[in-house]
Amino acid sequence: MRLELVVMLAPMTETSRETETSRAGPSQHFRDLARDELPRLYSIARRLVGDDAEDAVQDCLLKAFQRFDQLSDDAAAPAWLVSILVNCCRDRGRARARQPKEVDLGELERFSLYRKIAYEDPFPYSDSLHLDFLSEFGPEDVRAVLARLPERYRVPQLVGLQLEPAQQALSPIKLITGQINEQYSETVPQGQVLAISPKFNTVVKPGTAVNFAVSKGKRPIDVPDWTGKSYRDANKALRKLGFVIGKTEQYDAKVPEGNVISQSPNSGTLFAKDKVQLVVSKGPPLVDVPNVKRKSTADAQKILTDAGFVVKVEKAPFNLGLNIVAAQNPGAGKKAQPGSTVVITVL
């Protein structure tokens, strides 16, 4: 395969040109792009791996030909070939088990080059270079590669920041603010970035717009007033809105049993999971049942009716026709709700 690539890149005779013309396709295109770069590729390879330069260039051409469909812009071909060559040289250097040279990361130039390689990923068509490349070949070789590569930046992690600091983080890497879409969130505080597009770590060109989705905080919910209405209906409706319901009960002479006496709050807005407190009526207060035993039927009925009770008269099984109360239910002194029924048994 390597021999075929070298032959493929060699100058053509007129006969071979005519034959190749009839086979128009990727091979011809690759030959045209790669031939002009061969001297430069050999020069860089000799600096990086010395006697292994020829093998490194052969590896580069083979990989480039196999990945040729990845190259969408002919103008990027020189940088693309160099980036593949550098990785091939790195692999060759490792194969020879070369001892890495000491790298002084305190030296600004080398450190800045390392940061550019490690964090900005300037090689869009091949594997990224890492610190071991600097250790092995030095910053002057990296500079030769970077000089021919298109300027690219990675989108930083902005989710979770407040909008203003997130926008400020774009300026140093030559990105701009795009559209800002505000939306409610039950979990993310107001003003905090929910999402970005392009996504974190995407490699983009300078001037690319980054769009933001920003939290408006929790969605406010209008609070309806259920005072005087059924507690069952109020509880169901308020829970459906997302509120937590608190309930207390008390007697009330005016509000029917099971209805809402008061509500707090009963207007304005709240947020989901906020609490609405309801006071629910148990009906009128309980009163003592009067003692009507041994009283006449008429007197017993009057006493109980005046106390607010409904009277039901039943005759004893052994009724003697005396019309005197022998028993009552509820009994004397018991607590009962006004309007409830008291049964008296007469002789």
Structural features, described:
- The chain is α/β, with parallel strands linked by helices.
- It folds into four domains: 145 residues, no CATH class; 63 residues, Trypsin Inhibitor V, Chain A, CATH 3.30.10.20; 61 residues, Trypsin Inhibitor V, Chain A (2-Layer Sandwich), CATH 3.30.10; 60 residues, Trypsin Inhibitor V, Chain A.
- It contains twelve helices and 15 strands.
- It has a three-stranded mixed sheet.
- It is rod-shaped, with a radius of gyration of 45 Å.
- The termini are far apart.
- The N terminus is likely disordered.
Q: What's a concise summary of this model?
A:
The protein is α/β, with parallel strands linked by helices and 347 residues long. It folds into four domains: 2-146, no CATH class; 153-215, Trypsin Inhibitor V, Chain A; 221-281, Trypsin Inhibitor V, Chain A, CATH 3.30.10; 287-346, Trypsin Inhibitor V, Chain A. Helices cover 36% and strands 20% of the residues.
Main attributes?
12 helices; disordered N terminus; 3-stranded mixed sheet; Trypsin Inhibitor V, Chain A; 15 strands
